[in-house]
Amino acid sequence: MESPGSESSNGAAVAVATERLDLEAALALAARVAERPGPVVVDLAAVRAFTGAGAASLVYLVRSRGDGVRVHGAPEDLKRYLRELPLDEIVQADCLGCGIEEEPFLVAAGGGWLDFVDGMRYFAQLGLEFLYWVCIAPFRGVRLRVGKAVTELNRMGVEAIPIVALIALLMGVILALNAAGQLRAYGAEKYTANLVGIALTRELAPVITAILVAGRSGSAVAAEIATMQVSEEIDALRVMGINPRAFLLVPKLLALTLGMPVLVILASLVGIGGGFLVAVEALGLPARVYWDQTISALHVQDLALGGIKALVFGALVGLTGCTLGMRVRGGATGVGRVTTNAVVVSYVLVIVANALFTLLFFLIGL
Amino acid sequence: MAPVVAARGVSFRYGEREVLDGISFEVRAGEIVTIMGPSGCGKTTLLRLIVGLERPQLGELRVLGEELSTLDEDRADRFRRRLGMCFQFGALLNSLTVGDNLALPLREDPRVPEDLISIVVRSRLSQVGLAGAEERLPAELSGGMRKRAGLARALVLDPELVLFDEPTSGLDPVTAAGLDRTILDVRRRTGTTMVVVTHDLASAMTISDRLVVLIEGRIRAIGSPGEIERCTDASVADFVKRRAAAAAAGGGAAIVARHFD
Known about the structure:
The complex is a heterodimer. By secondary structure, chain A is mostly helical. Chain A folds into two domains: 13-90, STAS domain (Transcription Regulator spoIIAA, 2-Layer Sandwich), CATH 3.30.750.24; 105-363, no CATH class. Chain A has 13 helices and five strands. Chain A has helices at 23-34, 52-65, 76-84, 87-90, 105-136, 146-156, 161-183, 192-230, 233-239, 244-282, 287-297, 300-326, 332-363, and strands at 13-16, 20-21, 40-43, 49-50, 69-72. Chain A has a three-stranded parallel beta sheet with strand order 1-3-5, with helices on one face. The radius of gyration of chain A is 33 Å and the shape is elongated. Chain B has a domain at 1-77 and 195-261: 3-Layer(aba) Sandwich (Rossmann fold). Chain B starts with a strand and ends with a helix. In chain B, strand 4 and strand 5 form a beta hairpin. By secondary structure, chain B is an alpha/beta fold. The interface between A and B is large, with 40 and 46 residues.
């Protein structure tokens, strides 16, 4: 075996590869070859194993030096690997990332605003379309995909029950402990039941459930739709004459909008149960007193307000996930970005909507 | 007979970037026309315009006698059932089995009984060499199989026009040649008109009746494979020469043959 950099019998410089042709060995080999201006013989007789990067370096050598490179003693499996490599396509991208240009700040900021306005328009349009597909289209003979909606309802609603119930129970416990601590000073522990019941039914159960569903299902909707968008599955549906909004989005929106009130009712009941446990077991309040107080404090309108909020929050979470998923740009990075954004935007919308509802109900005396 | 595709002065831009500039060409019934050009020349955009996934900003584009950009969404959806498209990576719905992917457009028509759907799906899969694959998920298929399943789905509604986006990209030469044979076989049996977008010169020369060479958003040449090879336009000749050289010298097999002992 000849040593690195020695001369071959025909006068061409010889570069000897090591036993393992990996990236490190390939870089060293390339450096030695680069020192030689004339024809080069690359001796691979010592190579017993190779990596993808090592094989790629040979392609690089051949492409950069052309006919000045001769490869000697390459193992058969390396030759087979190279023969099967679809280089015709690999070398198409001569410079990865060369086409990416940084946008000037003002252009990027302006584009961001236009994108935001466009997103809002899509959100509103999708909301109206959802109402059309659910309330009008079935009466015009267009079938509502109930089967798909039930599947989604199971995934987004039924499977969410354990986590919603657990959090609601703990919320009830926390609320009761805090309320009892304050009310005891006035000898009014029994009103713990009133506070827990009203706070959970009107405010906490809808908001906490919406936040849990946004984190669990809103993000999943955004990720699923975005992945389908970047892999051209949405385009494929359109080419098959299938409206992707009716086929994909409406069942998800329907499931979230209808599933949320059910989850909120469940969360309210379990939360009240949590308060009951604290009041009866820890504070010694008679069970009968707790239930009587709860029933006297809660009115139908409290349940109705919670239900209305839940419907709207469900629609907001679904519309956010669907809008962001459909408007994804880029590949895997874009999918990750819209998934995160779906959660953050849903949280903000739910909290803002809750504040507006509470203000509205206060102003009209509900 | 009216052309299946007739483009007159079609232009399209993404933001400030002009992608297609005054494109005019026709595709006649039963033809396989291949649109070729370097990366980023607007080939795929032209395909998306033909199938109505984008709308031209200037000019007129008629497909099967209809100007898709003038149709509302419902009519466009119904019209697209006369077309089939084979996407670059198959674009099969990953959550559905191969069989369900093929059945999807058929199930949109409530008149089609499930037994008939099953027969159509199995026979289409058999035609593209995927018999027995109906219960498999797309993730369980190789790249070439996914493309063939995509072709089967594109053909499931007996379309009058089938469009292919880079059908042989990412496939080894043997599989690519097999897909070319499948495309020719389908055309021979059904007489379906096909528009293919590719940068694979060998595939284009094999399957095409005519080629359209698109460079920097403009058509530089239209003709039979022989006419394109003999074309004197400098940009076309340069493109063909570079693609041929890349195919001959850039392939791994050629590198081994030329440079290895």
